[in-house]
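Attaching the record inline, Q. Sequence:
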Amino acid sequence: MIKNFFLTLVAVMMLVPATLAADPEKYSDDNSYIPNTPFFGKISDNFSLSSTLRYRYLVDDPYTKRTQNYFYFQRGYITMKYKFNDKIRARFTMDFDHTNRVALRSASIGTGGDLTTSTVNANDGTRGRIKYAYLEMDDFLGLNGLTATFGNYEQPGPQDYHNTIENSWLDRYYTFGFSSAVTGAMLTYNFPEKWGYVRAAVANYNGYGSAGDNNKAKNFISDIWIKPPGTGITVFGWTMIDYYAANNNEAHNNVFGGGLEYKLAKMLDVGGEVDFAKNSVSEIKAASYMGYVNYSPLPELMFVGQVGMMDNDTDTSDDEMLMIIGGFNYEFVSDTYIMFNLINESFKVGGESKSNMRYNFQLLVNF
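Structure, as predicted:
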């Protein structure tokens, strides 16, 4: 009964006409939310509903390196927003994903000692989970410019979740461990005259892949964004103290980074970011570097490019990974995009250079 009710509710939500709800949300220069739900996205003056669906056509299976061509639904979001008054609002977003994978069917050791394996294509089906569910209050405790957020929200930090690359491809580069959603509380202070903002959050840093940690991760995350008005320049820095509540409750990681971004109207967006991990600057054990450029010669067309490098252990040589991404994003119908990307990953195994090239075609539908 409950399952049927839930499925019916999801079906109704997906059929209601609504508008673009890109993830993450769009913000103005002073970090105030820009609603992207015009008339047809509104259920009432206070309530809006929207959906984003991603479909992918994949060439070259990354697991077996065999060429496999298939078109499938990969991810979707259904977002509900409710505005209680001018200062209090709520958001609830369901996240659906569908995974196709290659599963190990059998393994055996031959007479020569070689390992022989066989695989089978497995379909994990479509899963639904909560992405965001939070309450947001402006002028918190009567302090002008201070916003408080409680619940499951978008975490402060990495540049990858704050630029238009997120709307251009799914295969983005970032240091392993970053998550776009955390559970806890966050305070945001907007600087006067739209000069930027600073945020501080206390959170359980559990992404989807860390659910087995049973909320053991306790973190303090903060960032600052400086945006001189009229320059198109953004400078940012961030840090995260990652406490893992094991027996000794010692700090598991201290991750920090920063970067620079420049935007020229709606035509050009370039930027770079560096991130480091360990307990002190003198003991850096991991590092990542990323640079990107987005160029829009036409309002509906964007060319994208990105180069990223990650070194999981600075004490170990030949363990760096390099990712190069290039492609385009074309809006051929209102709020509907065609995306094509080339992704090349380079790495070393046993001192030998390896590479993996794949081609992704995506269809992004917003309603």
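The domain at 2-366 is CATH 2.40.160.10 (Porin). The helical segments are 2-15.

More tomorrow.
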